[in-house]
Each structure stands twice: as C-alpha cells, then as structure tokens.
UniProtKB/TrEMBL annotation:
It holds the Pfam family CN_hydrolase. PANTHER family: BETA-UREIDOPROPIONASE, NITRILASE C965.09-RELATED. This is Beta-ureidopropionase. It comes from Eucalyptus globulus. It catalyses: 3-(carbamoylamino)propanoate + H2O + 2 H(+) = beta-alanine + NH4(+) + CO2; 3-(carbamoylamino)-2-methylpropanoate + H2O + 2 H(+) = (R)-3-amino-2-methylpropanoate + NH4(+) + CO2.
Length: 426
C-alpha cells in the first residue's frame, strides 16, 4: 500500500492479461465516484505521482506550444474568490505563437464553462432552468472578471440532458433563439464586452415550432450575431436524439466576431472529420465543441478527437462537457439488452483547449463545475498552415471526385484484387 501526496491510499497495479485495466477488473474499479484513484483529472494524478523532471518530459508527448510547455496564467483575485465561494474549478493557461516581423500578436482570451444541473429532474421545469442560470452566473462573472473575450457554454446547458428518456415532455425546455436563456446571457455579454456561445434546445416558432439543437452566437454588444444547428445526430443506444430533433440546416457557418472568427461543432459532430474540415475551409480560427457525453461511451476518444481536429485544420478547439449524473423519474432502456435505468452514465467534464501545434491544456475536473480560461495568439493558425501546408497538399479535387461518385446509387468501391486470389462466387 502507498499513500500519495493528496492523502489517498491505493494499491500498486500491474498489467492484467485477462482484459482488465492495469490489473483492475473494470473501469469502475479505477473510477470511484467519478475520480481517477482519488484525483479529478489525469493531469493532477500525473503531476502528483511523477518526479517533476519526468512530468516535464511527459509534457513533451502531450504537445509543446512553440517548443515550450504551456504556461499557467495568473487569475484576478476576484475570480479566485468566486471560485472559492461557489465551489467551482478554475484554471488558466497561455498559448503563444512565434513573433512575426509584419504582424502584431493577435491575442484573445477565451473561456469554457462546464456545469452540472442543480435541482432533481422531478422539480418544476422553470425552477430547474432558473436554478441552472443562477448556478452558471458566478462562473460567467469570474470569466468577466478575468477579461475573457469569448465564452462558450456546454451543449443544452440550460436543462438536463433528457434525450435518452424518449419522453416528449422535455421539449418544454426548448426556447426561441431570443428566449429567456439568450436574454439572460445578452445582459452579461454586454456587461463584460464578451462574445458568448449559447447552446440551447431551440423551438423554431416560424417553422411549425420545430425543435433543433442550436448554438446562438451573442456578440460583445449583447446582439445576436447568428445561430448554428447541430449537423450530425446520434442514433445509438441512449443517445438516440432524433426522437427530439433532426440534422441541422445551417451548413458550416463561421461567425466573424470582434475578437476572431469562430465556429461551433456541436457534440456528435466531433466524430465526423469532414465536419471539422468544413469549418476550417470557411476560415474558422477557433471551433467550439459543446458536448454532453458519458464515461464508458466516449472518454477514451475525448482527448484525441479535438486535438486531431486542431492539428489537421490549423485552428484552436475548445471542448466542453457537462458533469455529474442526471437521474430521471422513469426507467428507460438503451436497446442493448442491458437492464433499464434512470440515468445513462456519468458526464465526465474534462473540458480543455487544443491548439494547431498539437499542444493542449490540462483538463478541468471530471466531476466539478468549472471555468477554463486560455490566452491564445491567433497568429499561430497561419504559422502552422505555413509550416505544414495541409491546405496546399490536401488534393481536395480527388476527395470531391470520390465523394461525388460515392453518392451515386451505382457506386463501386475502387478495389484492385490480387488475381491469384480464389474466385468469389457471385
């Protein structure tokens, strides 16, 4: 037995040859109460257990920013005081770019907020929504006190993520683009001179009150710049969201704000490389991925997909995920043969930023509300385009031709078979 620096006691584990995780029977044996051996993030676990020099070497493989480890940014005392008073995680880091001779640095301060629901899902809907507003406001105030220029909240932040229940009554949480959650954030955007990305469940009043999964972009003057609707809708197990809304119809818009060009790749869209690509082709410098996803389903891919997208498309990515377990009144099934349940797993937070040079910030807590702040020099986007030449070498005409042929009913894959292989019967 060994006592770690944070007072937790753990057993030394060895790799198991039986499919276990490092000698443990299941992921649940490693993740107790949402913690990794008592730690709320992998970065904090490694920092506590590795010698400082070894930890710095490990940072190399996590990605260096312009040849250096990412540096922490000091936060205003009032922001730290809000974090302490309202018990939310707060971290801040800085991405730099190489100094240029002809362009000044284009430094923008960006924030991500992850949050849990506050009331049980049996409470009146308006009470649930207002409680979430009140819970999120101190984090927005901390972002404002920290000088954040652009802030993004998580997917459908103003409600429980009830879409696994298949119950239509949760549609009552849907709002028009200019509804109460947008108005709430418009006041704060204007107060703090801050662009806010507001992911909501939208009710489209002008088109038969259709429901959409939408991100509303609020300008730093409190105006509505525009909206984007979720392009890709999952249809598997608990995440069968087409019960409520279908694929969006807004394309891949990039919003030019006072602080830079931003886009929003909502949740499941992160699994689709062409979705990431399209935002890049339209000129995005920062792409946000507001999400709601649970442990065993996606946590192994969470640190990888956004970082890959940032590298491949030469832009920054902000990944946001909610936290906690959300239990609903009625049992539902995943359609996978497992028992019915009232929740569909633990939302694991772990919000983070990724940069085009493969560097990334440490993540926020796996189980706690939080605000992540990052300074980023947008000059890094062009510098990485010049370095790798991905746009110049991508051969988009080949991809366009392939996709055009693939979409035809008579498409045949381009497969060249070894003539010595046995003939297949038709």
């Amino acid at each position: 037995m060994e006592t770690t620096q944070n007072g937790k006691v753990e057993e030394e584990a060895t790799a198991g040859g039986d499919g276990s995780i490092c000698g443990f029977e299941s992921l649940g044996s490693v993740l107790l109460d949402g913690l990794i051996f008592g730690y709320d993030s992998l970065d904090r676990l490694l920092g506590d257990h590795l010698h400082p020099k070894v930890f710095q070497s490990a940072v190399y493989f996590m990605g260096l920013n312009c040849g250096r480890a990412l540096e922490a940014v000091p936060l205003a005392d009032c922001a730290k005081a809000l974090s302490s008073e309202y018990d939310f995680d707060i971290l801040a880091f800085r991405f730099t770019a190489d100094k240029e001779l002809l362009r000044e640095p284009r430094v923008v301060r960006v924030g991500l907020i992850q949050n849990s629901i506050v009331c049980p899902t049996t409470f009146p809907f308006l009470e649930q929504k207002m409680a979430i507003h009140e819970n999120v406001k101190p984090m927005i105030d901390a972002a404002g006190a920290s000088g954040v220029n652009i802030l993004c909240l998580q997917e459908a932040w103003m409600m429980p993520f009830a879409f696994s229940t298949k119950e239509k009554r949760w549609c009552e949480f849907a709002e028009p683009v200019d509804g109460e959650s947008t108005r709430f954030l418009q006041d704060l955007a204007k107060k703090y001179n801050m662009v806010i990305v507001n992911p909501i469940l939208e009710r489209d009043i002008n088109h038969g009150e259709t429901i959409w999964n939408t991100a509303v972009i609020i300008g730093n003057c409190g105006n509505i710049i525009g909206k984007h609707r979720k392009n890709h809708i999952p249809r598997g197990e608990d995440f069968n969201e087409s019960t409520y809304y279908m694929e969006g119809n807004t394309g891949h818009p990039v919003f030019e704000t006072a602080y830079g060009k931003i886009a929003v790749n909502i949740c499941y869209g992160r699994h689709h490389p062409l979705n990431w690509l399209a935002f890049g082709l339209n000129g995005a410098e920062i792409v946000f991925n507001p999400s709601a996803t649970v442990g065993e389903l996606s946590e192994t891919t969470w640190p990888i997909e956004a970082r890959n997208a940032a590298i491949a498309n030469s832009y920054f990515v902000g990944s946001i995920n909610r936290v906690g377990r959300e239990k609903f009144p009625n049992l539902s099934t995943s359609g996978d043969g497992k028992p019915q349940h009232t929740d569909f797993g633990r939302f694991y937070g772990s919000s983070h930023f990724s940069a085009p040079d493969a560097s990334c910030t440490p993540s926020l807590s796996r189980q706690k509300d939080g605000l992540l702040v990052s300074d980023m020099d947008l000059n890094l986007c062009r510098q990485l385009k010049d370095k790798w030449g991905f746009r110049m070498t991508a051969r988009y005409e080949l991809c366009a031709d392939m996709l055009a042929r693939y979409l035809k009913p008579d498409f045949e894959p381009q497969v060249i078979s070894d003539p010595l292989l046995p003939k297949k019967s038709s």
